[in-house]
Write a structure and sequence with these properties.
With 471 residues, the protein is α+β, with helices and mostly antiparallel strands. The protein has helices at 17-28, 68-75, 108-113, 119-126, 141-149, 151-166, 175-178, 180-189, 192-205, 223-233, 297-303, 349-352, 374-377, 381-396, 421-434, 450-463, 467-470, and strands at residues 9-13, 32-36, 48-51, 54-57, 63-65, 83-85, 94-97, 100-103, 214-218, 237-238, 241-248, 254-260, 263-269, 271-274, 291-292, 295-296, 312-320, 332-334, 345-347, 361-369, 404-410, 438-440. The strands form six sheets. Strands 8-7-18-19-20-17-21 form a seven-stranded mixed β-sheet. A five-stranded parallel β-sheet has the order 10-2-1-14-22. The structure holds flavin-adenine dinucleotide. Flavin-adenine dinucleotide (FAD) binds at residues 13-19, 36-39, 44-46, 59-63, 241, 243, 275-277, 280, 283, 312, 314, 410, 413-414, 442-443, 448-450, 453.
Length: 471
Amino acid sequence: MELSPSNYQVGILGAGLTGLTTALALKRKGVSCKVWEQSSRPGGVIRSKVEQGFLVEEGPNSMLVKTARVNDWLGSLDLEKQLVSASETASKRFLVRDDQVLAMPAGLVPALRTPLYSARAKLRILKEPFVRKSTEADESVGSFVRRRLGHEFLDYGISCLVSGIYAGDPERLSIRHAFPKVWNLEQSHASLIRGAIALSRQRRRQKLPAFKSKMISYDDGLEVLVKRLARDLGSSLNTSVAMEQIGRTSEGKWRLRGRSGAEVFESEVDALVITMPRHQWDQLPFGSNVTADGQSLSAGLRAVDELEYPPLSTLVLGFPREAVDHALDGFGMLIPAAEKRFILGSIFSSSLFPHRAPDGQVALMNFIGGALQPERAALPEAELVDRTCRDLRELLGIRGQPSFVHHRFWPRAIPQYPVGHQEFLDQLGRLESRFPGLHIQGNYRGGPGLSDCIDNALELAEQLQPASAAT
Ligand SMILES: Cc1cc2nc3c(=O)[nH]c(=O)nc-3n(C[C@H](O)[C@H](O)[C@H](O)COP(=O)(O)OP(=O)(O)OC[C@H]3O[C@@H](n4cnc5c(N)ncnc54)[C@H](O)[C@@H]3O)c2cc1C
């Protein structure tokens, strides 16, 4: 039988942002698609709640839209009225040094003027174009930044970015995979500064309209986005699914059997997409007859490198505005590990987007734990509040007890891209070529940010098509 988009079927395991976006992009191409989600609600780690007039994000709090493709996709969802852009002040970020909350420099010239860095560190940045390019296949973020820019810029710059995006450890994260653009600048221009200048000249010469990234959310929080994707998927989305068996038919299709609530279902699909976190792959009930080259798919998935997902607590605290001395006129404050504080940082949620706190109140979203202090994330809520308030009191001049507290513990939050992550990606690639019709895509492949997840899902949906249509 000739495969055309209308009789080509795709099954997707997991209805986080990756699974939902892939499914809707396929549906819009006319490809029939089913999504199976284990939990009773779609959206994965995206969770927005309203409590006592505070709009709380338990997981991601904002999306930095990085490409025109993601921007166009979001535009096509008919959510303009609910979309909110980050306030103007959000471009300002604060960083703590010697217990002072200082504005981070945005660009090279402000970096040379800021009191954040010593004269020696600034001179070191000027030497960057003359540092020799690495010939290694990969390197840790820590080693890369120390080598090119010096340790001060690592401790009081990049390590905070690492903490803000990955809640990670710069000595273990891969520069090549966690910050591929930075790695590529060194690879192609032997210098970050020379590379950045060359790229901006090239853009000007070619008159390429550079997409200006923008930070967004929705009036009722980021969950608005996944609710819209789920709504548009309609009956293609199944929640509360317990998959019982996944096998292969003699024609090479995937046959799935499971329960969705009380209902038993069976389905056959041409392509199967796994989007769930690495640590949940072992739950997938692939039959022992799903084999290739003498190895079962279950064994193949188990053999893929484990990924670290460090624990993280998000703690949203509300305070009366007059109880806070700091103007909170920015995105938030990052706290370098060298400062030996309890929290990793704090996002000034109510300064970032409207309606995050009731009138006269402010909301701060604090992060605790991560790869550097994993044990802290699991502390009892009362201790988290107490120790967080101590940091906020000393750094932001906050007085009294919080008027609002919302805590969420993430035992496994964000996947880390370690040095040598290429091997993990190669393992996925090898499995996909040994098991035709298998695709693995989630926040461990191509970036963990929401914008990365959408971009990668759209790319996958582009590639997923019947073999006959591809030729
Ligand atoms: C605390 C936190 C804060 C973050 N902050 C930001 C931020 O501010 N900005 C940003 O851009 N990014 C942020 N991120 C990262 C971003 O939110 C995630 O990388 C992204 O949402 C992941 O989407 P996903 O679909 O790949 O995975 P997930 O959201 O993990 O979705 C996977 C889905 O698979 C389902 N599943 C699991 N097992 C099965 C099974 N057996 N069968 C069927 N389904 C299954 C799960 O229930 C889940 O719904 C944050 C992440 C966390 C945890």
